[in-house]
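pasting for ref
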Amino acid sequence: MKPHAEITEVWPRDGRVRLVGRIHGRPADGYWRLLLTRRGRAGHRLDYPAQVKGDRFESELLIADLAAAADTAEVEEWDIHLTDGEAELRAGRRLDDVHGKKKIMVFPEQRIHGLSVRPYYTVKDNLSLKCRTGAAT
């Protein structure tokens, strides 16, 4: 299996999304950051510090930052990675033998400044964020 950031907990609340997991398939040495990449604009990124102890990581992102980055698109999707500056590890949940999380796991949405934000699992069991403007909700 490819190295990745194995998500064990997703906590969307209080204007934040807190993520907890383990770095799988790569040494966890160094300085790690949580990286959000906007699918429609690959050059548009947000990043946040990640605390790493052993192979365990924890980080959180601010919903207000996504609202500030929003433009006229009704739906925006952001992919989540963990990076040490050299490698970008896709965040997802693959080691639990539960496939098809997109149809199984539903996280609560948060709203701020006319934008709703909801974490979701993709068809490949990666974790992403879906943002909808007020017109698209």
